[in-house]
Amino acid sequence: MGRNGSKSEQSSTLVDNFHRPVDYVRIAVTSLCNLRCSYCMREEHEEKSDEESILKKQEISAIIEVLAGLGVTKIRFTGGEPLLRRDIVELVRQAKTQTGIKTVSLTTNGVLLDRFLPALIDAGLDALNFSIDTLDGNRYRTITRREEFCRVRKNLDLLLTTDALAVKLNVVLMRDVNSDELHQFVDFTKHHNVKVRFIELQPFDDNQIWRTGKFFSADNIRALLNRSYPDLHPVRGNATEYFSYTQPNHKGSIAIIPAFTRNFCTGCNKIRITSNGKIISCLYEKDGVNLLPILRGNGSHHALVDLFRQAVSQKPRDGRHTLTNSVRTSMSEIGG
Ligand code: SAM
Ligand code: SF4
User: pLDDT tens digit string along 236-280?
Assistant: First the structure.
C-alpha cells in the first residue's frame, strides 16, 4: 500500500463519537490578508506570519493524502486570503490529482483573482466562494478598511464570464451597515448564475462587533425576503445553507446561512486545519491538535492517521455550548 498505509486503515473512515462521518476539510493556507473586514480582523492584524510554522506545499499535500485515505472527499482552501499564497494553483492541482478527492473549492475575497483565475480553472478547481458584502464602493471601504472595491468588482465581473466554476457570493449581512442591500443582491441573481448566501455574523472577532447591535438574524433576513419577494420559492437547503430559495426568472438563487442562531452540529461533517498545522475539530474549539511535530519529525503515515482520529474523537456533540468570549479572535485563524 506504500505511503497510503494498510488496507484496513484505508477502508476505515473518520467517524466521530456521535456517529457523524467526517468527509470535508477546510484548510487555511495562510492567516494573512490584504483586507481588514471589521467583523473578522483588527486593523493591526499581523502583517507577517511566523513563516516557519506555516504549512508548506508538500506538507499540505501529505495531509490531503492521509485524509483521502480516511474517506475525505472534499477540500476547501481558505485563509486569511488564500490567493496571497503564490503556490495556490499548485495546491489546487495537487489536491485535484489525489485519488479519493472529488471536490476542491476555494473561498476568496477576490482582490487578486484576475492573476489566478485561468490557472485555477486549468488546475481543476471545482467551485469558488467570493466574499463581497456590499456593491457600494464607499461602504466597501468602511467594511474592509481598504481601497480595493474597483479591483474586486472587476474581478467579480471576470469571474462571471466563466461557466467553468460553481460560484457563490458570501454576504455577511449587518444591521445599519449593509442590510438594506439585500434587494440589490437578490436583483444580482436575476442576470447571473450565482448563489447569493446571506450569512449571519458570528462571534469570532476581536472587536466583538456582533455585540454592538449589528447582528442581523436569519429570521430578519427571511422576513425581509418574504415581504419583498412574494414569489420567492423555498427549495431544499442543506445543513449550512439552511434556507434556500429560487425566484422566478432569476438565473441564480439565494440562501441564508444562520451561522449563529441555528445549530449545525447535528449534521457536522467537517474539520478544519489552520495555516500553522493544527487540526480544529469544531468551530468553537480553541486549541486543536498540532500536526507539525509529527509532520516535521519524520513521523509515519500511521502517526498522522492517529492524530486525525484523536482530533475527530474530540468533536463535541454541540460546540456552541462550549462558546466563551475568548474562543477565537478572528475567523481568519480557521478560514470560516
Ligand atoms: N479571505 C477569504 C474571504 O474573505 O473570502 C477567506 C477567509 S474568510 C475568514 C471566509 C469567510 O468567513 C468569508 O466569507 C467571511 O465573510 C466570513 N467571515 C469572517 N468573519 C466572520 C464573522 N465574524 N461572521 C460571519 N462570517 C465571517
Ligand atoms: Fe480577510 Fe476574509 Fe477576514 Fe475579510 S473575511 S479580513 S477578506 S480573511
Answer: 988 889 999 999 999 999 999 998 887 778 888 999 999 999 999
pLDDT at 261: 85
**Residue 336 near ligand 2, beta carbon < 6 Å:** no
Q: pTM for this structure?
A: 0.94
Amino acid identity for residue 49 in this structure: S
Residue carrying C-alpha cell 492567516: 31
Cβ(196)–Cβ(252) below 8 Å: yes
Measure the CA–CA gap between 259 and 204, rounded to whole angstroms: 11
Give me ligand 1 centre to Cα 230, in Å.
Answer: 30
**DSSP tag of 103:** E
Beta carbons of 38 and 209 less than 8 angstroms apart: yes
Domains: count for the chain: 1
The answer to whether position 330 is within a domain reads yes
Question: What is the overall mean pLDDT for the chain?
Answer: 90
223: domain range? 7-334
CATH number at residue 147: 3.20.20.70
Residue 243 covered by a domain: yes
Q: Pairing between strand 195-199 and 253-257?
A: parallel
Residue 95 belongs to some domain of the structure: yes
d(C-alpha 265, C-alpha 153), whole Å? 34
Selection from 285, 284, 313, 317 nearest residue 70 by Cα: 313
Whether ligand 1 lies within 6 angstroms of the CB of 332 is answered as yes
Q: 50-78: per-residue pLDDT in tens?
A: 788 999 999 999 999 999 999 999 999 99
Tell me whether residue 1 is in a domain: no
For residue 276 and ligand 1, the question of a CB distance below 6 A is answered with no
